[in-house]
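## Example pair
The file below holds two records. Each record gives the amino-acid sequence first, followed by its structure token line.
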Amino acid sequence: MKTPRRWPAFVVFGLFMVSGIATLLIFRPSPTSGSAPLDGASLAPRRTNADATPPAIPFDATTPRLVVRATKSIPHDTAAFTQGLLFHGQKLLESTGLEGRSDIREVDALTGIVRRRVPLNVALFGEGIAVAGERLYQLTWQSGKGFVYDAASLAPIDSFAFTGEGWGLTSDRAVLYMSDGTDRIRVFSAPGFTPIRSIHVTEAGHPVWMLNELEWVRGELWANVYQTDLIARIDSQTGAIRGWIDLSALHSIEALRALRARGAVANGIAIDTTHRRVVVTGKLWPWMYEFAIPSPLMP
């Protein structure tokens, strides 16, 4: 009887390792088998237009730039994530965002007190507003749904659908202009919300994106550029930027830093043509600011 052959220990260990690796390769789950993705790519949050990096504006140093200073400060609800602001006659209307906190409200233009509010469904994120005729239109951010109210009473009367993201909204009393966080402003019929055309906004040939809250001023579209202190004055026919309104001097440097630290960025432009004034504010700002604009720019 032969004695069984004894293999050296290092050979046995090597065979064991090879066998284990082969087993892993054979039984490794496929990424499509329902197991968790290996690289985690599908777990990344869905990107939106708000995830873009703000443009390095202004692109042209020769574009007129007006630095404004407040002539009056009006208290503002620091819980209001402002998405739209407008005067309807002498009523100051505001829309706010964030799920569970979105609403349309009438605000006292002297004291900042909220006189009445109409909340949105808690699942919706409110966005810009505009008045056309006697109707108040309101966008939502990602639901593709908008709402129509009686502009006088704020009573809900209708709804409408649209594609893409909803950001800012304004009207020239004939049609509606909508921003979506890109360099594009879409024009819609009112009523009906039927697409008419698009305007691509540029300065010195460079697209200007992150366009947010909108206001109509004498043939121009004024737009907050998200995460900046600048309002773009846009030619409503060509999309070319005619000038900038700089809001950075409304706050001290320390106050501005504190606001930015909590995401409290400029957003909200309301033109009072009767008293020839502009009122601006921002998301979570403690104040609304009133200032005068030189006569050539006023309605």
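Second record, same layout:
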Amino acid sequence: MSDGTISKKEKIVGIEFVRAMFATGIVCYHFACHSAYAAPILYRTKNAFWGHIIVMGFFLLSGGMLYLNDHEVKDIKKFYVKRMKSIFPLFYIAFLFFFFLNVIQAKKLFYGPSPWTMFLSVIGMDGYLLYLIPNYYTIGEWFLGAIIIVYLLYPLLVKLMEKHPAITMSVITILFLLQLLDGKVQMEKIRLPFTCIFPFAVGILLFKYKKVLDSNITLAVSGVLFLLFWLVYIPVDEVISTEVSGITLFIILYRIGNILTGQKAVAKVSGFLGALSYPVFFVQHQVVVRLQLIKNPVSTRGYVVLLAASVAVSFFAAWILKNVYKTGRFLYNKIYAFNK
């Protein structure tokens, strides 16, 4: 492999810490979105929403991890099957659980718009296209649809990045900036295709040229930019602020993770929580909303207690979801082997 080579130990040390922090951060952000108590520090910086910043960081992380595992896609069909298996089983389990909770509450199977819109949930695009087509979106946010799109584009993207990295990144950057100028698009700018492809491509580059990611100069520049965009209003498009904040936050957390997880206890906790980051993404919003429907405190103490409970319950629910999937897969393999 190229400069993107990374050992299993390094991957656990840096990446799992980032995953754990991003998963915790997205729970805190959605908690702040729905809380009756005003806590802007968890909601947005001077220039962007924390949730959007973390999502851009996730795109970068996804691009980097895909490059490390599949820097050369030899079998496109096998690649797509592998990616879909990594996305849809957990999504379907979580979706069906919360969908039927809604059915029980509504006492009606199709409690929303036309039943045909369930197809959007089947293909994971319900959240992404909700602005355009009312549907049965329940979990996954718009991020799920966006990550499916970038996964579909990955074989072409990584091939271009390997052969012409500078040209490819330049074209993506130009297209990203041009789409921000189109005021007629109904979709939020933060969800537009090249808004998501841009950090994904940056992730590929950072792990292709890993010396840049590990450089102290990169860390110093990232630290300055992140603090600047966090604390000082910068008169640029909010999407640009979000991208800069997400990329620099990833770099900072990755480097901090390399240091902190040198301790076995921290590494173990990071590994456990990081492994739950994907299922957390599916369950956390539902957990946050349902807990706040029970009690939505307006005092600082109540806010902190419920926030801590929301994080804990989100990770616990994610652990259950992951183990339900693992159990189901185990039983399927046993039955398949028996019948064979």
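Notes on the second record: The chain has a mean pLDDT of 92. Residues 8-339 form one domain.
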